[in-house]
TrEMBL record:
Protein name per Swiss-Prot or TrEMBL: TATA box-binding protein-associated factor RNA polymerase I subunit A
One of the GO BP terms on file: transcription by RNA polymerase I
Domain of life according to the entry: Eukaryota
Any one GO CC term of the record: RNA polymerase I transcription regulator complex
Signal peptide: none
Short name of one Pfam family: TAF1_subA
Classification lineage: Eukaryota, Metazoa, Chordata, Craniata, Vertebrata
Source species of the chain: Leptosomus discolor
Amino acid sequence: SSHEHKLNFKKSKEVCLSYIQDAMLQKQWKRAAEFLTSYVESLEKDFSRENVGPSEMIWRIGTEILCHHSYSSMKEFNSFIEQMKTLGVKRYLKVCLEHAFHLLCNGLIDEAYQNLSLAESWRFGEQTAIQDKEMKLIRAYRALLDYYSWCKQKNILLEHGQDGFEALPVEQEMHSCFRKAAVNLKEIIKIPGVWDLFVKCYVDLLEFYGDHNEARQVLNEYAYNSKFPANPNAHVYLYQFLKRHGESKKSLVSALKILHDIVPSHELMIDFNTMLQKSKKRRKRRLGLEVIFAALDYAGWKQNAKAWSCLARQVKQIVTSEKHLDWIKQEWNSRKDWWPAFHFSRYLAKRNWQENESLSYEKALVAGILLGKDCKYFKYVSHQGCKAQVKRFRILKKFVNKHSPVYLRISG
């Protein structure tokens, strides 16, 4: 019966999809392709009984298989994608984007540009308005390729100089690429979202032509507009721009403060700490200590000699002056239960000494102050340093012994 046929078809379709999934998970691309072929053929045979069109699943699965299949060629991939374009009007622009990405990954830049240009001219009734966002993405990615062409022309011009008749067509082509890229890049970054690559390219174009005010406005909007999602890179780009143009330390600190709040483990925290330590304001120096402690809470910083040097230098200054020991105490209170095992074990002391003498020196100074002269890390490193007759380790040992009462005040 018709009802029984539908039930059987539905069951066999689900079983076939599970076989495809299993084959893909095991990276058996040939087997997955065979099952997908059977799946598509079964759908075609059933069109007379049930209106089942090619779903997004076929597009996604087919693309994945063709990207990994050992016998797949660019010709076959292009053929499959073109079929997906004609069979899925609602997904047309998405398929075009994926096609362009695949072409770019295979170094076919001109073909990708042509593909995006054709997609940009696509019109299909109401679908054109519905897919407005996808169309903006199409234009934005084409703008990236215009930017790429602009970079090539710029490099040619810079390499061969701007003098002579031959430079004129290059410069004209370069300005043409700039205009096409700038219009669409400016358009896409107005939409709230994460547009890192597009923003960087647009700012590069503006800076090259000396429009620094526009570039600053774009970066400020990207970093501070509340409609945009929190994005650490936005503050990184703003900081780098401000630094390139010699802006005030106040502006630089402001940009990095927000970055610290979002990603306390960011690599720029060393720059942030250095700037804060040079400040004459007490609250900024206090923040600097907080920043470097917070960065060293993360495993990725455990072997960072610069970070430990920053912390050692500030701890040494505080201990020597005997001012603001409460700063160290406040930071240490929340860490004294886990930092000893995380940073100052005997195993790490041995490893650090073997791999990086400077790192072990900075860490030993911090360990000696925070945990006292009986700390395993400090004892091992200072012993090895003195044994190797390295002068600074003898000085280090004397310094920690001299200021041993500080440990009692911090730990108390």
